Amino acid sequence: MIIELGHFALILALVLACVQTVVPLVGASRNWPGAMAAGGPAANGQFLCLAFAFAALTYGFVTSDFSLRLVTANSHTDKPLIYKITGVWGNHEGSMLLWCVILALYAAMAAVFGGNLRPSLRARVIGVQGAISVAFLSFLVFTSNPFSRLATPPMNGQDLNPLLQDPGLAFHPPFLYLGYVGLSMAFSFAVAALIEGRVDAAWGRWVRPWTLAAWLFLTVGIALGSWWAYYELGWGGFWFWDPVENASFMPWLISAALLHSAIVVEKREALKSWTILLAILAFGFSLIGAFIVRSGVLTSVHAFANDPERGVYLLMITGLFMGGALTLYAARAAVLEAKGVFALASREAALVANNVLLAVSAFVVFVGTVWPLVAEMAFDRKLSVGAPFFDAAFTPFMVALAMLLPLGSLMPWKRARMDRVMVPLWGALALSVALGALVWVLQTGGSMLAPIGAVLAAWVGLGVVADLWQRAGKGRDLSAKLRRLKGLPRADWGKSVAHAGFGVTLFGICALTAWQVEDIRVADVGDTFDVAGYTIALDEVRGGRGPNYQTTMASIEVSRGDRTIATLQPEKRFYPVAQMPTTEAAIDNGILRDIYVVIGDPQEGGGWAVRTYIKPFANWIWAGCIIMALGGCLSLSDRRHRVAAGAARTPAAGLPAE
């Protein structure tokens, strides 16, 4: 009965989404207050229906209701409870239901917290958000029904993909979807503003917190996925330029550009056209990501489905919303004229350069991702675009971005003199270069990547310090400076913290790439060998059983000199129901290095395959991501993002669009 009620709630949500789309949009065009206000209750009702449908599906997984096709395909009675719950979104249908729940959640939040928006803009935002819900709920109901029943239920299920039975993957998709779908709000604000023919500073202030929230969730989601790949897949890497990884990274880059561009709209009423375009493209890349994950056109270990028919439907959704929004964008070009004028050396110009670097880098990733598909369709050639291309094509843009950040932060609006901007930065530049030289000397040869990374990371970090010191004021004593710093808006602190996190991640990537040591060998029980100054001893290999898997576990002692560093227990697991093996790396984490050990298969001549990696500064990569996310949280908590952007403009509220 609960399952049937969940199915009914899903269909009712589709009906409410249609109401949410049509009524407020018509009301806004006719200036009918009642119709405009109807969007809020419809959005709230749709969210409640979808939340109930999601809870009903979760109930089916927790109770192992194998009459549900989805539960049979993705669960098993022996599976731990946490993975029964995460199995709800560890598949195509359940993940699309989660997508729709989050989509409705954002619309409901706009209805609840958007009371200070102009009524017409609020109604149009909710209406556009409802149109997106109609498209995805139709896709879910008619092609991917999560409540489909089996005529003859089996005694047990087929289990969830073992790679997804991991805490990192349990929380990775929800955070990603909160980011992916959150960009729909920026899209809805952009389309609503185009329909109204009004893009101003208030609009820039309204769109920023929604974009910031989406960027924040994407940052956390991408970091969780990278961390999972690092310790779970046993490859020893943190990023593989996989198509699905790229599908989440491209919206992150565009949303970062949108955040910076919206600042210019808010402060200077410039870059209106470019900011609207970025808002459209950010959600467009999210739609492209959904297509990549679910169509099967590109091979990925992360893909949910391999169904070209579903892919065609998603492609139609992408074409409808992107094509419609870009057509409206072209038609409204005249109302997007910028008011602010700025010099080549100014904060506006630095933010433009920031946007260009981020947008072009996203385009480079997009080309590398889809080129194998284009080559096969157009030239009948099978190509593989791997890490060497992405590393060579993408890295220069990030280097330029790191060089630009401290300069842009210290430049004044409208016009700047570079000699004055550099005054507080000369010391930071000298220290950064000195640190890079020290790293180059200490590493005694080898790749220049680590010294360059040290210079850039120090430049970004010290630039943050210089910026904050400047904001503390000149000619003040230390206590007065500290009081002034304490009084800075949280958004300013958030920006500084996020930039510092970027520098930390940048150094972690460079140091790990330049200095990691890899050792692959066949070892017998009792063998010892040295890797980068550490002694590795294979003490034991034994079999065992877990809740729903069989395991081969090694015991490996790591020592340095006479001191034992750690006893690591890497595993090779086999899941009988799914007939699938997985590798569980054992890692001794440290601030300055990770010792990473993997046990492989037994060899024909005796012994076991053992892979050992020494990974310097690996955890700095995710520490930097956490710092960036904390910066986003600080900015999002700024009171200015919670107070009405248009409070001073209330006399204009309710006027019909020109």
UniProtKB/TrEMBL annotation:
<feature type="transmembrane region" description="Helical">
    <location>
        <begin position="493"/>
        <end position="515"/>
    </location>
</feature>
<dbReference type="GO" id="GO:0017004">
    <property type="term" value="P:cytochrome complex assembly"/>
</dbReference>
<feature type="transmembrane region" description="Helical">
    <location>
        <begin position="41"/>
        <end position="62"/>
    </location>
</feature>
<dbReference type="InterPro" id="IPR032523">
    <property type="entry name" value="CcmF_C"/>
</dbReference>
<feature type="transmembrane region" description="Helical">
    <location>
        <begin position="125"/>
        <end position="144"/>
    </location>
</feature>
<feature type="transmembrane region" description="Helical">
    <location>
        <begin position="352"/>
        <end position="373"/>
    </location>
</feature>
<feature type="transmembrane region" description="Helical">
    <location>
        <begin position="96"/>
        <end position="113"/>
    </location>
</feature>
<dbReference type="InterPro" id="IPR003568">
    <property type="entry name" value="Cyt_c_biogenesis_CcmF"/>
</dbReference>
<keyword id="KW-0201">Cytochrome c-type biogenesis</keyword>
<feature type="transmembrane region" description="Helical">
    <location>
        <begin position="423"/>
        <end position="442"/>
    </location>
</feature>
<feature type="domain" description="Cytochrome c-type biogenesis protein CcmF C-terminal">
    <location>
        <begin position="315"/>
        <end position="639"/>
    </location>
</feature>
<feature type="transmembrane region" description="Helical">
    <location>
        <begin position="617"/>
        <end position="636"/>
    </location>
</feature>
<keyword id="KW-0472">Membrane</keyword>
<keyword id="KW-0812">Transmembrane</keyword>
<dbReference type="GO" id="GO:0020037">
    <property type="term" value="F:heme binding"/>
</dbReference>
<protein>
    <submittedName>
        <fullName>Cytochrome c-type biogenesis protein CcmF</fullName>
    </submittedName>
</protein>
<feature type="transmembrane region" description="Helical">
    <location>
        <begin position="274"/>
        <end position="293"/>
    </location>
</feature>
<feature type="domain" description="Cytochrome c assembly protein">
    <location>
        <begin position="89"/>
        <end position="295"/>
    </location>
</feature>
<feature type="transmembrane region" description="Helical">
    <location>
        <begin position="313"/>
        <end position="331"/>
    </location>
</feature>
<dbReference type="GO" id="GO:0005886">
    <property type="term" value="C:plasma membrane"/>
</dbReference>
<comment type="similarity">
    <text>Belongs to the CcmF/CycK/Ccl1/NrfE/CcsA family.</text>
</comment>
<feature type="transmembrane region" description="Helical">
    <location>
        <begin position="175"/>
        <end position="195"/>
    </location>
</feature>
<dbReference type="InterPro" id="IPR003567">
    <property type="entry name" value="Cyt_c_biogenesis"/>
</dbReference>
<feature type="transmembrane region" description="Helical">
    <location>
        <begin position="6"/>
        <end position="29"/>
    </location>
</feature>
<keyword id="KW-1133">Transmembrane helix</keyword>
<keyword id="KW-1003">Cell membrane</keyword>
<feature type="transmembrane region" description="Helical">
    <location>
        <begin position="249"/>
        <end position="265"/>
    </location>
</feature>
<dbReference type="InterPro" id="IPR002541">
    <property type="entry name" value="Cyt_c_assembly"/>
</dbReference>
<keyword id="KW-0997">Cell inner membrane</keyword>
<dbReference type="Pfam" id="PF01578">
    <property type="entry name" value="Cytochrom_C_asm"/>
</dbReference>
<comment type="function">
    <text>Required for the biogenesis of c-type cytochromes. Possible subunit of a heme lyase.</text>
</comment>
<feature type="transmembrane region" description="Helical">
    <location>
        <begin position="207"/>
        <end position="229"/>
    </location>
</feature>
<dbReference type="GO" id="GO:0015232">
    <property type="term" value="F:heme transmembrane transporter activity"/>
</dbReference>
<feature type="transmembrane region" description="Helical">
    <location>
        <begin position="448"/>
        <end position="469"/>
    </location>
</feature>
<dbReference type="Pfam" id="PF16327">
    <property type="entry name" value="CcmF_C"/>
</dbReference>
<feature type="transmembrane region" description="Helical">
    <location>
        <begin position="393"/>
        <end position="411"/>
    </location>
</feature>
